[in-house]
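Morning F.,

Quick status update on the modeling queue. The single chain you submitted on Monday has been processed. Sequence for confirmation:
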Amino acid sequence: MSQEASRAAYAGRAKEYIDLLGSMSSVHPSDLQIVSTWASGVEGDLIDAGCGPGHWTNFLTEQGLTVRGIDQVPEFITHATHTFPTVDFAIDGLDSIHGGTDSVGGILSWYSLIHYEPGAIQVPLREFSRVLKPGGALLVGFFEGPAVEKFAHAVTPAYRWPVDAITAELGRAGFDVLESHVRKTAGQRPQAAVTARRRDAAA
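Structure tokens below.
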């Protein structure tokens, strides 16, 4: 699916998504711990890539970090700007981020890559690698499964990935994976998160 099609799908259901998932009260406690622990080790500015309604961006800002939330869905950015007026938000895609090379210390990509087809996921990952400083931190949240496969996501088709497969893609894009987490809860799709460090180009 193209990013334009994904953008249109989310735009059409933005209010529903915001009402259901657009606040920290909807966040699983283990996700809060994973993101908080990761963010505490980030040195430098941070991008919340695919920030959606902006609640994670605001949360990280409240932790004392300098964070910019970006999303390709204008409806999300409008909501985020009005709800969190002191936080920095911008309409921006993940394939070509408006940011200098080696310019930020961390990128949070919390379920923002799930709609990329396997053959296209290197595009945003390499863009993350470009924008991050050497040694910069990346946290990716995604749906986990035994194989890379498409499934019927509530908004638009998405993909689940084995941790090993995401790890391999990150390696190809210039990252070293540091840690992985998998959560399996009855009645829910398995969830996963991977932390990685941008490899020094000289390494």
